[in-house]
Each structure stands twice: as C-alpha cells, then as structure tokens.
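Bug #77: duplicate submission created two jobs. Keeping one. Sequence:
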Amino acid sequence: MPGATMFSRGCASNIGRLSTSNRAPQLSAFSSITSPTKTDLGLDWSSLKSDLVDMIKSNQCGPIMIRLSWHDAGTYCKADGTGGARGAQRFEEGESTHGANAGLKKAIDLLADIQGKYPISASDLWAAASIVATEVMGGPKIPFRAGRDDIPDATQCVEEGRLPDGDKGADHLRTVFGRMGFSDKDIVVLSGAHTVGRCHADRSGFDGAWTEAPLQWDNGYFKNLMTKDYKPETTEKGNPQYRNSDADVIALETDLALTTDPEFKKYTELFASDADAFNKAYAETYQKLQELGWESKGLQEIAW
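Kept job's structure:
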C-alpha cells in the first residue's frame, strides 16, 4: 500500500567466511591503535567530547565523521540481527574494502589519537564523533548512549551491498532502509544528512556538494531539492548524477527520488519549509540508527 515500508525477506550473510588464511586478523592500516572491544562507561565523557569538538573544528571534518558512523550502523538487518554498529572497518579485510566505504581511512586516522587516549570501543567513538560533529556544524543535540562492543576480527564483517547506492531510485531506498526497519519518513529524514558534506570522485565516483555551505547544518538540502533545477551529467569516473550549474550543487538519483515519489515528497516539502521539524525528526531517527541491534543490550545514556 502507499507509504508502506518494503522489507527484504532476509539478509545474506558472509559472517565467518571472510578470512582467507590462518593468520590472526590484522588491524587495518586505517589506524595504528588497537581499540578495546568494550567501553569503560566511567571514562571522562566531558573530556572526550571536548577533544572531539577541538578535533572536528580544527580539521573541518564533521561530514566524514557522520559518514563513518552512518556506514558502521547502516549495515543492520532486522530479519537476522546481523550488522549494525560494531567498529567493523578496523580491519584490512571485510567492510573496510567495500566500495561504499572508500575514503573512510581519513576519518579513522583523524580519530586515532582520541581512540588511544580513552578506553572506548571504536563503534562507540564513531557514534559519539558523529553526534558531536552534527552539533558542531549547527545541527540538533542528539542523545548519546554508550556500551557498543566491537567485533573481534574481520570474520564477523557482513557482505557488501547493504548501504545505499546513489544511482538508484525509490524502490532501492525502501529495500535498503526497510531492511533496517525504517519508514518512508525515516528515509527522508536520514537522507537529510546530505545537507552537509560533499561527494569526492576518488571515493564514491560522484562529485560535488549538495548545498552551497557543506559545513553548515540546516535544511538547505531539502530547500535545494524543492526549488532548484538539475541537469544530468556524468562524472569523470562515469557515474550519473545531476547538477544545478547556477549554485554548483548536485543531486544523486536517490536524492531526486525524494521529490518524485509522492510519499517521500510530502516529507521533503515539510522539511524544506520547517527546519525545526527536520532537526527534531533527525535527532530521533539518527539515534535510532545508531542503536540498531543494541536497543535491549544495556546501553547507558551519557550526560555530557
């Protein structure tokens, strides 16, 4: 029926099949820090947040912090409980090699000093960094709960293909997000993270920013989708995308689906006209994303 979320019947899993030798899995070259698999919930959270704020501001790296944690959590499958935030990109094998995660080496490296300073799992640190980054860039304050455990090695990684592809449309979005248990509204809300950041041809194959101020959190992404005309083009990597040449901003097929699908469009229109409604919905839905698979596992709310 219209607006219903489409769920995949199950999630093919390669867990336990990725190791190609008997050697011990090695930490990825992304970082020289071997993070603990459990977080000490008594750590100095205020100090951690302060360090994250300083690092994000000095490196202007807010968007990639969101992408790192999003791609960690966004592999979750509701049908079998696999995937989700597990710090899975710490290893040379497995999810760090997936095409959707190209370029995330930079984010993990930027966090290496903080990772080494505090007794915190990578999955908790990545989630915290994304929440702090959103706030630093002017976005909503998102509740944070800690207590995620990292997977011990790359054999626990999931198969490639669980993250959204930018060159596909509404049915693809409903399949990918529906696998995690998200509704049409949730899909539009989480797509709103494109209000910050940009695509890099050497990473995703797409090229350009969605808004004129890619380090400023607002509802400009939705405003652009509802008011600007985009012309099709092909990037130097051969990827199809769309560009508004006047503002020099882009849209992908998945972005334009938010304006052509009637159910998606009503939320896109709402968020284009009401930044507060977007921020409120984003804070709620992003927390849900970060906690997929961990909801009943004793996460502790952090007051920082």
